[in-house]
Fold this protein.
Amino acid sequence: MTKKLLLELARKHGTPLVVVDHDLLRQGYASFRRHLPKVQAYYAVKANPAPEILRTLYQAGASFDVASLAEFLLVHTLIEHLPDKERQDYIWDKIIYANPIKPRETLMALNQYKPLITFDNSEELRKIKRYAPAAGLVLRLRVPNTGSMVELSSKFGCDTGEAVDLILEAFRIGLEVEGLSFHVGSQCTNFDNFVQALNISAAVMTRQAVQRAGQEDQLRDRPAVPEGHRDPGRAGPVPGGEHRHLDLTCHR
Ligand SMILES: Cc1ncc(COP(=O)(O)O)c(C=O)c1O
């Protein structure tokens, strides 16, 4: 954006004036993709929910991290025009409801969209089972936030020691945990936080797989697909009792 254009805008609209350069948004997203080609980048809608910004990032191919029903519906307006299957695939693949604590009304409203949602405690799990049983689950882990400007682990994320029990509890009540999430803290410049978070996640995945194998043997005859749940194209319970737990293989 040139200085001349900024001056013109200031004259036209008066000051103070916030100008968002959408070329920079596109460049930022492209740069992320270029440097981390195997990583799916989710734009946290809470950063700025302006519909124009969401549209630009949607057109650039971004995924979205939403933290409220209102944010989810804002993203949903971008995909309303898609045919049913494409819209559902988009919700599964490209939206995560990443706030681990959700009012029951929100869960009830979200259920019809079968979204991917996070949780970090047993009470939330039971709420999800009751009010949004068609959702896919992601367990949020508490990881070191050392040096970050805002330490989010002080309020979100389960302890590493609880993680496997929560995954097994979900399994016992007929829900599937499809992945893990963590936040290294807002404005984190400490690379080690990422390394530790990935090591913690790997340890949880290994441990749950071992314990889960034992439980599956005991529960082999139990129906695997909750009523109204997703189709076999998605990781999670599939007909015939075949499970693909915490299958984080990147299929994109
Ligand atoms: C799941 C999740 N995503 C994104 C954010 C935004 O984080 P940041 O401030 O690092 O952009 C938060 C902050 O609470 C969060 O919990």
The longest helix spans residues 191-218. Confidence is low (pLDDT under 50) at residues 221-245, 248-252. Residues 44, 46-47, 65, 98, 152, 183, 186 surround pyridoxal-5'-phosphate (CB under 6 Å).
